[in-house]
Amino acid sequence: MPDALITTMSKQPEEYEDIPGTWVFDAQRARKGYHLNAFLYSLMKAENREEFLADERKYLQKFPMTEEQREAVVKREWNKLLELGGVSYALAKLAFTDKKSYQYMASQMVGVPESEYVKMMLRGGRSPDGWRSKRERQD
Amino acid sequence: MARIIAGIGTSHTPAIGAAVDNGKTNEPYWVPLFRGYEPAKKWMAETKPDVAIIVYNDHVNAFDFKIVPTFALGCGAEFPIADEGWGARPVPIVKGYPELAAHMVQSLVLDEFDMTIVNEMQVDHGLTVPMTLLFGQPKEWPVRVIPLAVNVIQYPAPTGNRCYQLGKAIKKAVESWDEDLRVVIFGTGGMSHQIQGPRAGLINKEFDTAFLDNLTRDPERLARIPPLTYLREAGAEAIELVMWLIMRGALGDHVREVYRFYHVPASSTGVGHIILEAA
Known about the structure:
The complex is a heterodimer.
Chain A: H1 3-9, H2 13-16, H3 27-32, H4 34-42, H5 46-54, H6 56-60, H7 67-74, H8 78-83, H9 88-97, H10 102-110, H11 114-122, H12 134-137
Helix pairs in contact in A: 10-11
Chain B: E1 3-10, H1 14-21, H2 31-47, E2 51-56, E3 71-74, E4 78-79, E5 94-95, H3 98-110, E6 116-118, H4 125-135, E7 144-150, H5 160-175, E8 182-188, H6 205-217, H7 219-223, H8 227-234, H9 242-249, E9 255-266, E10 269-278
Parallel strand pairs in B: 1-8, 2-7, 2-8, 3-6
Antiparallel strand pairs in B: 1-10, 3-7, 4-5, 9-10
Helix pairs in contact in B: 1-4, 3-5, 5-9
């Protein structure tokens, strides 16, 4: 692989946007998700978790997020949250606030019950075959 | 002089730490994994290094997005354990080595690696899970630690080649320190995994095996893997493997593989582990 490819690829979002079922957390997504992630970061503190759960919409008003982001938080629309600039490690703090695990969050993103997701992992996980490219899948 | 005597590659899956902390290591799900790390713990107990440089990434715990350093060297005297949202892990506080870290920063910056200097930070599972796997559950950690936090969360992470070159500069920095110290370096994270989106759960055993093979056979080849290849072939979070290349670069041209272990799954991760001694 020529060295030139390393630098050119990192500058072309269309290349990684071709990966199916994935929202790469790049600088533009990080920019859009800044306040959403700041909200998620705040859930590291127990008192904030309590305050959020007591009145979610009120708590979310503290952060200058978009209404679309707030709505996705309240509905726990995990994939939407990724698309709107949430990063999975920060989103996990919302899952933990709900007393759920990483695996639960991943299963919700995949759209299967947690038990089914755990079984898939025990069988060796998801094969990359068929999941490399949107073009290949004709998504 | 100080010498880097060995490198350790290992995954740092948080569920592994939780299994230890909650006494679940004898459950059938976890037995094969912890059995696989037994020889590594024995090796570490016999090797008794003075210092561990631990290359890891923070998971939105020490760093929120106010500041996103690409390479951050922990220069403080100690590093408290982060509460990641379910309480801090019940492990000893991590003791630093400020004198050596200060020397490394000077050497690295003059070698054109513009490190971010971090004097106070908490450390999360990225750093503590590898310590648990290799050192067990002591009352005090038996080594001093210099944390090197790498941004692999906001794309793009530093390239594999950049990481490999940084490893070489770390070797030079350590070897220009007068004190007789035996240093090990950890490259953590990976191997194949994706924990976001409908593609979550991706594992690529062939990719992981080739990566482990090439750490001894052809590390230069690994250093040329483009970021997109990690993402596409081994999952969005597999980009963490560039941190193993810092470890590999710090070992010099020739290494001897002394132990290897691979296991699927721990939570959503293909767990890989390797010990390389500098030849």
